[in-house]
Amino acid sequence: MYALNAHELYRFFHIGDDETAALRGISLHLSPGEIVAVTGPSGSGKSTLLACMTGLDEPDGGYVEAAGVRLSRRSEAERARLRAANFGILLQSGNLFGHLTVEQNIRFQMLLAGRPDETRIRLLLESVSLAHRAQAFPTGLSGGETARAGLAVALAADPLVLVADEPTAEVDRDTESRLVEHFKARREAGLTTLLATHSKALAQTADRIIRLKDGRIDNE
Ligand code: ADP
Ligand code: MG
Predict the structure, then answer these.
(1) Domains of the chain from N-terminus onward
(2) Ligand 1, from 47, 93, 194, 211: best to mutate by most atoms within 8 Å of Cβ?
(3) Which ligand is nearest to the CA of 169?
(4) Order of strands across the sheet with 35-39?
């Protein structure tokens, strides 16, 4: 069974009379333990694809399955439940709740997935070098710390699929290499990682690179 399966995804956006075909029939299958990198120029559909594959957005055509369970064309509540159970999501920003500390953000994500684990919170904080910042609020964090805290939140529930949209676009080298370490550890554990990236270092970690151009896969 695929960890994540996208079948013939289409997504259109309309502004007035203008139509943008952001996804034009994209199929993508991710196996357990795979790291797949999506690359392509700005506007090629990477973020739209990732959003549709996690159920944050609904495709206009096609469907997505996570671990064999249909995600598309389900109610918002059902999608949210499946998302919390199966996915860790790391966006370029907005990964932390501002009124919660770093530690509380991680714990909250675990609770959403139904997997509270105090020991894992400590281990995660150490693994992203934020043990000393556990009680800090997001506004008190540096850029690199914010990115690492977002990673810890995305990894909180040890998700079957980690989806990261340009996770290293604005981070220092040290943070980038930490991300890479986590992605490799997930591969060893048979967990799947899907990322959109411009970073060569990050794309090189991937088992497969999918190039997007104008909402289509360019290399298959
Ligand atoms: P990428 O992440 O590769 O830069 P996006 O998926 O963000 O590409 O965008 C793909 C295309 O869809 C672009 O032309 C973008 O302008 C358009 N688009 C994305 N989201 C929206 C939206 N919410 N409303 C209108 N157009 C959108
Ligand atoms: Mg994008």
Answers:
(1) 33-56+81-217 (3.40.50.300)
(2) 47
(3) 2
(4) 87-90, 161-165, 192-196, 35-39, 208-213, 216-217
Task: Determine which residue's CA is closest to atom 15 belonging to ligand 1.
Answer: 43
pTM of this prediction?
Answer: 0.93
Angle among Cα 65, 71, 75 to the nearest 5 degrees reads 170
- What is the arrangement of strands in the sheet containing 61-66, beginning at the earlier edge strand? 18-30, 4-15, 61-66, 69-70
**Is 161 strand, coil or helix?**
strand
Ligand nearest to the CA of 167: 2
Cα R_g (the chain), whole angstroms: 17
Strand partners, 63: 7
The residues lining ligand 1, judged by C-beta closer than 6 Å to any ligand atom, are 13, 15, 20, 22, 40, 42-48
Q: pLDDT tens track of the chain, all 220 residues?
A: 899 999 999 999 999 999 999 999 999 999 999 999 999 999 999 999 999 999 999 999 999 999 999 999 999 999 999 999 999 999 988 999 999 999 999 999 999 999 999 999 999 999 999 999 999 999 999 988 999 999 999 999 999 999 999 987 778 888 888 889 999 999 999 999 999 998 888 899 999 999 999 999 997 5
